[in-house]
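@channel sequence for tomorrow's demo:
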Amino acid sequence: MSAKDQVRLPGGVVSVAEEAEFDPSIDAARDPSGRRYDDAYFDELADEAERSGPPQLRRGRPSLGSTSSGHSPRLSTRVPQDVDDAVRAAAARQGVTPAQWLREAIEQRLVRG
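structure tokens (generated this afternoon):
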């Protein structure tokens, strides 16, 4: 089989049938290890998924604090455009996001009193 009879996909190389019609008994699609995609293949995948249970997904962003509650309260405020520009410029100079820059500025102000 020549390279022109194959197609490279993210999961591996797939052979391309030369005939216009696809015959699944001959030209079955295969996974990267060469195993045919058939009912038994998908049954095994389903069984494995049932055994392992649902994926453990976390909701939202990770907590910012060291508390075990996992809750990070949100503060919101409006500022004049020149303050917004200054915060964004300062954050960019320090290589952090404006939110991170503001968190650090608030913490510093609270420590100083």
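heads up for whoever presents: The longest strand covers residues 6-9.
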